[in-house]
Batch of 3 targets.
Target 1
Amino acid sequence: MINKVILIGNLGKDPEVRHLENGGVVGKFSLATNENYRDKSGEWQTITEWHNIVVWRQLAERAEKSLKKGMQVYIEGKLTTRKWQDQNGADRYSTDIVANTLRILDRKDSNDSYSDNDYLSENEVSNKLTTSKEKEVFNIPGSKSNSNDNSGAQDFTDMDDDLPF
């Protein structure tokens, strides 16, 4: 069975990070995703969904250091549902996304730059998005598609001409 969620959206607020007594670190933040469509009258409408994101350990520490309200991020993780009781003793449920990969998709100002260390997943080095193709897909700062002009054309000059067909 598979329980996997992939989201690209904007942070609704700065992450709230707590350092637990056992030495663990947990961070929480909200993420907004938008869906655009045309209604019956032809007008564009936007539906915004809000997601609760939870990050643990090094990923929580990186989130605390690097993430700010409004930033666009790529999140990979799994859905989890918690059951809890409110002040009146009524059962309540919350659905969260526990992230194991977090990528910042925004560019910083020209004076600052992001390092690859700001993009680590829970499995740090092994889950890093490092190839230029992945950077192009996710529009990562410093990738080929961002460093050239904004026309959206891809540069195929470095491709091998010896095709097998």
Target 2
Amino acid sequence: MKITTVNTPDGPFTVLADAGVVLASGWTDAPDVVAARVRTPDRPGAFEVVATNDPDLAAIIEAVERYYAGELAAIDDVPVRQFGTALQQVGWAALREIAPGAPLSYARFAAALGHPSAVRAAAAICARNAPALFVPCHRVLRTDGSLGGFAWGLNVKRSLLSREAH
């Protein structure tokens, strides 16, 4: 397991990956905070802090840089691995299908999962999303259009949505 941090317009962005597959990421320079996003039984016991040009992370960091340079689709093909229930897996896959600039409400997201009454479950899927940005849970909003929550802060969520709206 390797972890690195790159500077972005939204602050430091840290990525935990295994053989080029993102397990967790987020806007912090604290590796332990990012690693803690992986559920306990699947959390790495140790990881190596590496430079952003490490061969196992270079393509991932390049995708982040391209995203912030305006190429919003750059994050779409970055491989991720998440650990969770069958419904969570379906939900995380569905999050990757939400187009930039076209956010969904939690209610519409629940309906897209085939469970229109499971709005809280849809919100929980977003809350437990470990590879932030690559699995864009920031693209889900409250029914009234307000931001709702975001593990990395509402300022980051607002910034990402603003960037994707253009």
Target 3
Amino acid sequence: MNRAEFIEKLQRALAGGLSSGQVAENVRYYQEYIDSEVRIGKREAEVLASLGDPRLLAKSIIEANKRAGASYGSNREYDEEVSEEAEPVEDEAAMPDGRVFMLPGWLIMLILTVIVVVIIGLATALFSVFAPVIIAVLAVILIVKIFQRH
């Protein structure tokens, strides 16, 4: 594995658990570290071997940030491939400390299902309560109409 592959794997793995700013900061640090080690005479392959698997390195960085209270994003596994579209967007959902509160898709679907069931239940309950009244009113209107014709 060369430097570019190492940095790309590290960046992808970090994107699953850190903000884009934290990812950029860590990638920059490791790029500078590799550069400085190569400048003092080490071979690039030797430096990369000493760093180990970039995914394991990313997992360690993410865990350290979680322990420090600086976690961000989802709880994706460290080896999951993360596309550019999956990065959280900071918007009005952002918390004051810069974190974005994100719910997993299954939880959103569960909440929506519960809401729909509750609405249907309320509509059914209201209909069952008011159905006799509505039927009585319609019957009175029908009788009045019949007598008006005669």
